[in-house]
């Protein structure tokens, strides 16, 4: 995490040199060179509020809070679900399986191990969207200034939609027990989806904050964004008690009510994606129109909308009028 605000123009900005670790451990060696990009002062608090009150930020915060809780609860309840899915089976229905009860215990232990080892894939999964963003960015003309911004915002909407679908599907899957003591298809699918969704979901805040809002504001906006999810996380304990229902054995757990409720809550979040799609489309169209009317000057491809002189209030924190025209309902 940088110890100073990220500048508007990030070209040449070295986050490592300005990180808290470098400030504490290597302050003597961490000299600011002459060619380093100046980072400026941290924006005053009053400049953050127009962005916090913008419709797109508030709507995304609702999505982020709900889906974050659903993802964390799926992962947190996975071991309990595995035990429920197999210990609720009646071995009398599987006479063809020798030592049915032992097979159930072996399957449970295997799946718990797989669930734990699956976390190692979190280091690899983020490379997929990163490569796709880079690929689609390069498909735009070299003189088009909004290529990276458009690609990241499109990736944001796609990842949000994918996370919502997976959250709904996983919620429904948790209402079903295993089909047989030696059947692991359902459990492996649930584990795979619940792991795959994690890095994609937690990448969405930064795709939005760095592409739609001024970079110097991103740290504070992210901190505000996580506050609702902290309070929602306190629902985990009462909902888990509903699943347990006072049962002393895993076979008596009941995931039905909570899972369908969370599926409905996650599904409603698709409305956030719909609103953001039209809001982003409107904003991009306005920027392209302004760029075209100015004669489409040859400028660097990686230029961002956070440059000074931008008349879009979502990117200009120095305007006295903080009405966000591109986020009105």
From TrEMBL:
Transmembrane segments: 51-71, 117-136, 156-178, 184-208, 220-237, 257-278
The UniProt record lists the keyword RNA-binding: no
Domain of life of the native organism: Eukaryota
Keyword annotations: Membrane, Transmembrane, Transmembrane helix
SUPFAM superfamilies with a match to the protein in the record: MFS general substrate transporter
Coiled-coil segments on the chain, per record: none
InterPro entries: MFS_trans_sf (IPR036259)
Full protein name: Oidioi.mRNA.OKI2018_I69.chr2.g4847.t1.cds
Organism the protein comes from: Oikopleura dioica (Tunicate)
């Amino acid at each position: 995490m940088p110890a100073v605000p990220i500048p508007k123009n990030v070209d040449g900005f070295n986050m490592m040199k300005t990180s808290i670790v470098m400030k504490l451990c290597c302050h003597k060696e961490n000299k600011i060179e002459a060619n380093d990009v100046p980072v400026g002062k941290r924006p005053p608090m009053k400049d953050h509020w127009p962005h916090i009150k913008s419709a797109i930020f508030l709507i995304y915060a609702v999505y982020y809070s709900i889906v974050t809780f659903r993802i964390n609860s799926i992962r947190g309840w996975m071991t309990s679900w595995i035990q429920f899915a197999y210990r609720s089976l009646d071995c009398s229905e599987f006479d063809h399986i020798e030592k049915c009860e032992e097979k159930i215990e072996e399957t449970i232990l295997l799946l718990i191990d797989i669930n734990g080892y699956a976390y190692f894939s979190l280091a690899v999964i983020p490379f997929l969207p990163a490569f796709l963003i880079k690929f689609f960015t390069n498909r735009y003309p070299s003189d088009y200034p909004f290529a990276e911004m458009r690609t990241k915002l499109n990736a944001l909407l796609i990842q949000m939609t994918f996370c919502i679908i997976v959250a709904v599907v996983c919620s429904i899957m948790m209402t079903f027990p295993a089909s047989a003591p030696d059947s692991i298809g359902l459990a492996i699918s649930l584990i795979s989806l619940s792991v795959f969704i994690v890095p994609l979901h937690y990448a969405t805040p930064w795709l939005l904050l760095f592409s739609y809002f001024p970079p110097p504001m991103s740290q504070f906006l992210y901190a505000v964004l996580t506050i609702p999810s902290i309070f929602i996380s306190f629902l985990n304990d009462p909902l888990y008690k509903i699943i347990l229902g006072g049962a002393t054995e895993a076979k008596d757990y009941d995931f039905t009510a909570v899972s369908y409720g969370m599926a409905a809550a996650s599904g409603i979040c698709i409305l956030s994606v719909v609103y953001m799609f039209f809001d982003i489309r409107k904003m991009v169209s306005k920027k392209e129109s302004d760029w075209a009317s100015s004669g489409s000057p040859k400028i660097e491809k990686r230029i961002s909308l956070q440059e000074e002189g931008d008349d879009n209030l979502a990117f200009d924190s120095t305007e006295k009028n903080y009405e966000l025209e591109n986020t009105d309902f």
